[in-house]
Amino acid sequence: MRSIDSARTEDGWETASRTILYSNDHLEVVSEKIKTPSRSEPRSWTTVHRKSAVVVAARTREGEFLLIRHERIPIRCAIWEMPAGQVDSSDADAKEISATALRELREETGYELAADGELLALGEFFSSPGFTDEREHLFLAQPVVPCQEKALHDAEAILDCRAFSVPELQRMIAENEIRDANTLSIWARLSTRGLLDLSSR
Predict the structure, then answer these.
(1) Same domain, residue pair 65 and 21
(2) Residue 181 burial (CB count, 10 A)
(3) Which stretches of the chain score pLDDT less than 70?
(4) Are both 105 and 172 inside the same structural domain?
(5) Residues 42 and 69 reside in one and the same domain
(6) Which domain holds residue 97?
(7) For the chain, how many structural domains are there in total?
(8) Among 52, 50, 49, CA closest to 136
(9) What is the pLDDT of residue 148?
(10) pLDDT for position 61
């Protein structure tokens, strides 16, 4: 699995030592000693390297957004969130990342991009840079329509999928019903890009 440090050496980042503690198809946990641009002495750090992922804001023709209710084992509860998923390849190009976004949309919601729809890339963010280099690519898919053949989400532990209006989502965010970084981050990006209709609030 490709790590982020190899691309940063020329900027003053240097890996002094690196030990793999655990590795599987989805992540790699490493113990590292890293020289940073501001420190000559290496700092010890445990880092989780993960492949990139996508987050999709799926908007219907009515202007509502699809959320899934997803059982999340690490936090021991089910939460409402926007569809997301990991990119298969660690060196995926923009085309493969966009294809992943459309795949996750179909698999997790049972919806797909309409024939006259567009998939708009909204940039990226780091999900939790204190311990992982996971990079999330944000997309707006609009309008979306139900797939003719519904996808099964048995492996995903998805309990429900519903469309929410902008005011409903604003309230859910304000009242701490939506708590995952993916949904909060893409909502902030949509808002600051002027892609939300807030006139009905």
Answers:
(1) no
(2) 14
(3) 1-10, 150-156, 200-201
(4) yes
(5) no
(6) 53-192
(7) 2
(8) 52
(9) 84
(10) 97
